[in-house]
Amino acid sequence: MCILHGPGIRQQAEISGARIVDLAPTILHLADVPLPDDLDGRVLGDAFEPGSTLAQRPLRYQPA
């Protein structure tokens, strides 16, 4: 179970298909840190409020 709370996070959203490896990229994106290009998982964008800064922030990558 993972609980997200704060500005730009959808309230009471259930994210289907999420995996444990999705937590690291999501946390890095929330912290506005570039993702290593070899990182497994995906950013759980469905957790972000549509139109919010988090939803509009582009994914940034850096060499591992």
What does this protein look like?
- The chain is an alpha+beta fold and 64 residues long.
- It contains 2 helices and 2 strands.
- It has a two-stranded parallel sheet.
- The protein is globular.
- 9% of the residues are buried.
- The model has no long low-confidence stretch (mean pLDDT 94).
List the helices and strands and how they pair.
Layout: H1 23-30, E1 35-36, H2 53-56, E2 61-62
Parallel strand pairs: 1-2
Give the structural class.
alpha+beta
Order of helices and strands: HEHE
Choose one word for the global shape: globular
Biggest sheet features? 2 strands, parallel
Please, what is the average pLDDT? 94
Count of helical regions: 2
* Tally of DSSP β-strands: 2
Helix content: 10-25%
Termini gap: 28 Å
Runs in which pLDDT lies below 50 for 5 or more consecutive residues are: none
Radius of gyration: 11 Å
In order across it, which strands form the biggest sheet?
1-2
Strand content: 5-15%
Keyword list:
64 residues; alpha+beta; two-stranded parallel sheet; 2 strands; 19% helix; 6% strand
